[in-house]
Amino acid sequence: MNTTPKAKILVLVIALATLAAIALGISFFSKGGAERTSASPSALQQDPAASSETTKPDTIQEGHEMQAIDDSLILIPSGTYQMGSPESERQRGTDETQHEVSISAFYVDPYEVKQKDYQEVMGENPSVFRGDALPVENVTWFDAVHYCNRLSESRGLTPVYTVDGNTVTWNRNANGYRLLTEAEWEYVCRAGTTTIYNFGDQVHSDYANFEGSYPYLIEENYVSHTNPEVVTSRNRGETIPVTELPPNTFGLYNTHGNVAEWCFDYYGEYDLSSTIDPSGAASGSLRVNRGGSYNDFGKHLRSAYRSATNPIDADQNLGFRICRNAEAGNEMVVTTNSLDISTPENPKILVAYFSYSGNTENGAEIIAEKTGADLFEITMANPYRGNIYDVSQRDLMQGVHPALSSHVQNMEQYDIVLLGYPTWWATVPMPVYSFLEEYDFSGKTVITFSSHGGTMFGDSVSDVSKAIPGAYVGCGFEFNYSGGSGLSDRISEWLSQSGIRER
């Protein structure tokens, strides 16, 4: 086709402008270019517009080519921050060791993935709470990974993940959509802040969708309210549209509450030697999720809090957020593998339980009867008596793991331990920690079941998982109070899903 002189000039102008844009992009994002900027709280809070930008269409470098993508993701600047929590932070976990981490620039969705978008890409909507603008939930980690790949393919991008059974490979140079790493998630959640939440040191339902009856530090102010900053607020009891409630300084919505968000990483102790764009442990049995949900206590919404969940577990508390690269990763490929724990064809099973009111005991007896498992009650040397809120609160806040009066003989013989307890303060009772500390669970499968008064598991399964890192922790089972007339059938369904045969 012949080109007129005017057209040639226009093409030349466009080409020069494109080259200039590419040069600017490389100078801003290249690791060999300008020095990283530190996302200081003061700078970000004074000028939110300067901390992030949304471009339509956004661009991403693919080799030497910039590909236009109209997806309205937010550009997050590179920076260095303190990941984890200081030792002075109340109710911090021992796995929150504070350390400096540097994050490269990347694009992130300001919203959790909506049900409407998930339905369009995956052709289904597994959510418990239904609504186009609500976050998708009840999805496994693998569901989230497959969504990222399919969305990438639908937009002509290179899929990031290769899934081969339980082995997942991440091509860090691919330009497709992906989950945030745990370090990236905390970076964008904090948005330059150093407070417990990105909106301050206390949580309220005006700023986060959570179990507002249980704000941060409620455990020590429930029986005797001495801290005026601990104020209860609304408990919505369900998810809300992803655009509701104020965004943080980076422009991200619902980083605290609504649904907890799957991250890429396997859960494990922080590798303090990996400080530039870390991607977590190479193997494990649990994947990290962050931010807490509509049903979580305030302590589980902290910016530094780490939750760990079996990646095949679908929960109405769990959703995800997506992102994509703004530059190539510092590693070409990251390969992760599931912890390899094999169970014999006819496993030896123990049902171990702690019960206070009898609800958990009832469930444990049904499970033992169905499976033919040995039954063991976890009993205290000095049992709790009186106001259970008071006595359980005291041990929890002081970190007391009370002495037990019962002990398992020859724990080594068991391949599977079905562990039951009532959910107290959104975690396991402290005598259960005593039980977990007494034995070596390495190489065993541990599956929890829990009675509760409305908080479901809380974060108890994650807490059990962290206490026995050498075990495979399966998908748990929960029931409200006594479980009702349908408890037996529900237990049978759970056992079947867990691969445990009834006798």
TrEMBL record:
Residues 87-99 have a biased composition (Basic and acidic residues). It comes from the Bacteria. Residues 36-59, 80-99 are annotated as: Disordered. PANTHER family: FORMYLGLYCINE-GENERATING ENZYME, SULFATASE MODIFYING FACTOR 1, 2. InterPro entries: CTDL_fold, Flavodoxin/NO_synth, Flavoprotein-like_sf, Sulfatase_Mod_Factor_Kinase, SUMF_dom, SUMF_sf. SUPFAM superfamilies: C-type lectin-like (SSF56436), Flavoproteins (SSF52218). This is SUMF1/EgtB/PvdO family nonheme iron enzyme. GO terms for molecular function: FMN binding; formylglycine-generating oxidase activity; oxidoreductase activity, acting on NAD(P)H. Gene3D superfamilies: 3.40.50.360, paralog of FGE (formylglycine-generating enzyme). Residues 349-503 form the Flavodoxin-like domain. Residues 37-54 have a biased composition (Polar residues).
